[in-house]
Amino acid sequence: xxxxxxxxxxxxxxxxxxxxxxxxxxxxxxxxxxxxxxxxxxxxxxxxxxxxxxxxxxxxxxxxxxxxxxxxxxxxxxxxxxxxxxxxxxxxxxxxxxxxxxxxxxxxxxxxxxxxxxxxxxxxxxxxxxxxxxxxxxxxxxxxxxxxxxxxxxxxxxxxxxxxxxxxxxxxxxxxxxxxxxxxxxxxxxxxxxxxxxxxxxxxxxxxxxxxxxxxxxxxxxxxxxx
Length: 227
Known about the structure:
The protein has 227 residues and is of the alpha/beta class. Helix content is 32%, strand content 30%. It has seven helices and ten strands. The protein has helices at 47-54, 77-87, 103-108, 118-131, 147-159, 177-192, 204-207, and strands at residues 3-16, 19-32, 36-40, 62-67, 70-71, 88-91, 165-169, 196-201, 212-217, 220-226. The strands form two sheets. A six-stranded mixed beta sheet has the order 6-7-8-3-9-10, sandwiched between helices. The chain has a four-stranded antiparallel beta sheet with strand order 2-1-4-5, with helices on one face. Helix 4 (118-131) packs across helix 5 (147-159).
């Protein structure tokens, strides 16, 4: 199967005044469609920088990044924004939901610039919420939902555009152990349905749910194994 993601010798340098800080030292990594990958590493290992580059939130200093056979490492900001919106569904530790909007509106948001009619947007948002087990919570605002339910709303929002990749950054970081396990079980379910999922975490317990683990240290991949 061909690669969905192909990173070739990715280097990322941040200029801090007089100093150059190397976050990535030439990372090469291929991820195929439908893979379920955990990217692990301690703080400062480069995993967050790698996630930002995969998610088109940042661009490499050098090297090439192909997503769906498109060379995104050469794209301008507006092209990257379009790729982010169409190809990538983000799930963050802090949920990032609009507090005054109900679950349905939060999930509908990524579709507003998609050209779909209001009715079609609502239908897709309802379907995404149903898929994560929240059919009965669509009209609830974030403060009326538990942490686990909020993360499910965030996951529905990530899924609503039918993205190529779901990119989750410490998705259970703000949840208790039991709720975290429930969210990881949901990721597993989505993976079994054919979604490509990348989970960035520093926790072994979370990474063990994935099917392939990529370990980072000092801006390099130090281990890459399929379980």
